[in-house]
Amino acid sequence: MSTGPDIPLADSFATPDRAEWEELATRALRGRPVEETLATDTPEGVRLKPLYRAGDLTPGAAAARAAIPCPDDRDRWDIRQLHCHPDPSRGNADIRADIKGGAHAVLLGLDSKARRGEPAECGTDGIVLRSLEDWLVLFHGVDLAAVAVGLRAGASTPAAAAQFLACADRRGVPPSSLTGSLGADPLTGLARDGRLPGPVADQLEATGELARWCADHLPGMRAIEIDTGAYHASGATETQDIAFAAATGVAYLRALTEAGMSVDNAARQIGFCLSVGTDVFQAIAKLRALRRIWARIIEASGGGMQARITTLAATTAARMMSRRDAWVNALRATASCLAAGVGGADSVTVLPYSHALGVPEARARRIARNTQTILMRESGLARVTDPAGGSYYAERLTSDYAEQAWSLFQDLEGSGGIARALADGRIATMLDQAWERRLGALARGRDVVTGVSRFPDLDEAAVPLAEVATPAPVNAAPRCDVPVARDPEALARAAAEGADLAALLAPFRGEPAIMTAVNQHRLGEAFEALRDASDRWQVSRGRRPTALLIQLGTPAEYTERSVFAKSYLATAGIGAIEVPVQIAEQTGDTLAAHDVDLVVLCSSDTVYATSAAVAAASLKASGASRVLLAGRPGGDEATLRSGGVDVFVHAGDDMLATLTRLATDLGMTLP
After folding, report:
1. Residue 152 host element (H or E)
2. Quick check: pTM over 0.70?
3. Predicted confidence band at 56 (pLDDT cuts at 50, 70, 90)?
């Protein structure tokens, strides 16, 4: 360390004030007001300003920051890989490759039938684990004492936990050496899958019993992990996501204390998993706000300081994953992983770029792992506790999210809690409304899915996927006695004797709790449906639907709108042929030389004023059934329409509605 005198570098520079910045910014914006021009609103209505200063922090910001309890001794987060290949033997190969490649934990996604508590048959949307033998195959050669295991078993969680414990026992691993999460989360499972094997109250009671047993026998594991991914995929705003997580946590906290646990012990059994998107600061603020709110809940419940530090996992959001130009998903995942690391997640699951298409193969899994390794080890993100702390923007956004989420949380609690809000459809209504707002922003280009709603690639290469064979159905499960009681040890013994998931779930069955599952979406799905229709057209007709772009005037006059129109139409899978035309009256002759399905006029407003109506009339006279114009009609709309222009396409229009109408008119088969 240098012993020389300090050099006051900052003293050589003047400190600019707010007024000076606003003057320069206003000049750059050509006189438009800075705040109104540059400020934006989040989906929940939080205003994001262009510049934040110390004065923008809420009163008591320093104390609020201190109320975000985080582990202060970490030097990494856990790289937790999701595994969902139906074949346990293939899942074993993937798990071993992930661990060898740097993963610290595995997350097991069981097939949808198991998650709904139905008898396992032959699924392809998750691991099919019928009996102990399947678990032994899955974990063959895997050191269960060194790898954290998380379960995503939905309604079958108690049965899957019993089989996992039997597997560990058969492998000679004592319960005290196991780490991870059993993943119990019946309320979120009800929202996601629309079904629980018994009444909600009964399932909550069973969750409390499982947590109490877990606290006594599995010191390294948590019984509960609240995964709000289904809400997030249904369109939830960041503050709704936080509020639903907190309300669900309170429901479980009550169930655990009613089962005889102290608040401190109950809090240690509850963890959270939030989905994070590509808006880095919003995702950071969401994670920090949840920690603050949960700490406040535990404090108000009488919990101690250590109990207020929750275990927080993060998953790159499923709703942002695209099926088109899937390679871009790797970039989205990188931004999400950065946000999760900076936001203080204890473990992160990066979904491979091909997640929305099927079961990822080895390269996609490796890139997902290495994304985390590079950010954590080479960039050193995990070496700083709460690296966003102190940022005026991050602190203010955290406070805004926390306040708004707390208000919704209180509203839910005052109306009977999360279970009642699910049962009466209130949650579903909020999610549907949030999704409609998101879809509107996508349709008008305010939000963008790169490669899908903007900059599509009609010649994209196919993404490789893992081969998946449908598991063979099982005619009958091995006979064994399953205890009537919900004792995890007795259930584990039954699992060791060969009981399958359905049999082990028998003590938890009753009158099923049934509701309409929340409507999960991906942001690009509506545009991808148009691309799928284009693919079907191409198969049946030998080419894609095609537009003729009539470029009027000089390149300086038509290039910008020609590029825009080509990308606009490609979003729906409509190809383009670009032809410069100097004389408007010759557009009809140009059309006759090409086999196309529609025509788009592209040029400047100046050229349109003198030539667009003439060109459109010539095209119509030559048999064009649909003539589009790239640009806003302005005051000439009546003249242009009378000349033959049918549709105007421009930035900010309802692109999704326009393209859907065009696809229908062309005869493209939409779902």
Report:
1. strand 148-152
2. yes
3. confident
